[in-house]
Amino acid sequence: MSSSNWQRWGQLPDVSLYHIVLGGYVFMTANVLLVKFIKPLNSLLLYGKNRAQTTGDSSENAQNSKSILSKLIDDIFNLTVPKAWFSHYYVSFFVYCTLIQIVDIYKAAPVTELASNDVLYKSNKLIHIMLWIQSTRRTLECFTFTKFAANSKINFSHYIVGMAFYALVSLNSYVSLKELHPIAFSEVWKLITTADVALFAIFLAASFDQFRNHYHLATLVKYTIPYKFKLVASPHYTDEIIIYSVVAAISCKESLSSFASINYLSCLIFTVVNLSVTSVDTYKYYQQKFGDKFKLQWAILPGIL
User: Fold this and answer.
1) pLDDT attached to residue 179
2) pTM of this prediction?
3) Which of 50 and 74 is assigned the larger pLDDT?
4) Contact residues for 175 (Cβ-Cβ < 8 A; gap 6+)
5) How many domains does the chain have?
6) What pLDDT is stored for residue 62 in this prediction?
7) How far apart are CA 152 and CA 115, in angstroms?
């Protein structure tokens, strides 16, 4: 990209950047639903153990005649990258969050009196700190105990969606801070409320629980029942929903109608839709593989799904 193009990007109004984020999440959510509810496309949702099982089943029918659409879907299904590339999500997320943090700290200045936008800035700053914590933890998990089998693959479309998800939430955080006058962290701390503390505590609890669940999955013998999961089949996904629910709640409690809040809500909606679809497939896999040995009643949301 030329320097003039970079300058034009930097001069885009904040509302245009917000629209990019919103459009991205709406597009990705719609695509997940289309792939889920249009039966010929269902295979595009699968990866890991679910993908391996489907690949084995389809090989038995390899000689059957297929339509052009089926062959096209098969071609897309077979367009894969190593599952280890999952780490790219979190490394890029960490880099985005760290750069935003550096820029924001550099621009921050002491204030002499409280301005009306300082409370909004405080909420956006608190959200960014949570995103930075999430990106740091997930990056460390990827390079410490997460195991990626050498032959494990994910669909290329999953890889693109994952990269886009973290780029979009980082962009939303950047614009939400950029449009306000930065203040020093010592001033931010003075604006913290009891609700902020409670929500941040929920975030930390969900983060710790997700860490425990990821560690449990990483130390299991491959494709065995996750015996420490007592309530839902994919509690690490439940934790992810809680984390982004907290992010949306902190943003919305200050300004429900702001572009940033709408985008964090769209981020949460995508997270719920995407992980619910994935968790249902995982739940069905456990039922088929382990039969009566698999006792859990819920896939991801107790009492709902």
Assistant:
1) 84
2) 0.87
3) 74
4) 14, 17, 18, 21, 259, 260
5) 1
6) 46
7) 53
The fraction of the chain above a pLDDT of 70, given in percent, is 81
Query: Which positions ≥6 away from 141 have C-beta within 8 Å?
Result: 90, 211, 214, 215
Is 164:24 a contact under the CB 8 Å cutoff? yes
The predicted pLDDT at position 187 comes to: 82
Contacts of 146 (CB under 8 A, 6+ apart): 86, 87, 214, 218
Contact 141, 70 (CB under 8 A): no
Cα 204 to Cα 130: distance, rounded to the nearest angstrom: 9
Closest CA to 145 of 214, 88, 210, 207: 214
With respect to residue 295, please indicate whether it lies within any of the assigned structural domains. no
Determine, yes or no, domain membership for 47: yes
Which structural domain, as residue segments, surrounds residue 182?
Answer: 14-290
CA distance 66 to 70: 6
Q: What is the dihedral of CA 34, 22, 209, 290, to 10 degrees?
A: 0
Q: Which two tokens stand for residue 170?
A: 């980082």
pLDDT digits (tens, 9 = 90+) for 111-144: 545 566 788 999 999 999 999 999 999 999 999 9
| Sequence-separated contacts (24+) of 161-167 with Cβ below 8 Å | 161/28, 161/31, 161/274, 162/86, 162/88, 162/89, 163/88, 163/89, 163/92, 164/24, 164/28, 165/28, 165/89, 165/267, 165/270, 166/89, 166/90, 166/92, 166/93, 166/96, 166/135, 167/92, 167/96
Residue 32 contacts residue 274 (beta carbons within 8 Å) = yes
Q: Could you tell me the CA-to-CA distances from 169 to 91, 164, 211, 290 in Å, in that order?
A: 14, 9, 21, 37
Tell me the two tokens of residue 250. Answer: 């902190």
The CA distance from 190 to 218, in Å, is 40
pLDDT on residue 47: 58
Amino acid at 39: K
HSE, CB side, 13 Å, CA atoms: give it for residue 126: 33
- Is 221 domain-assigned? yes
| Residue 303 within any structural domain of the chain | no
Q: Rounded mean pLDDT of 236-259? A: 95
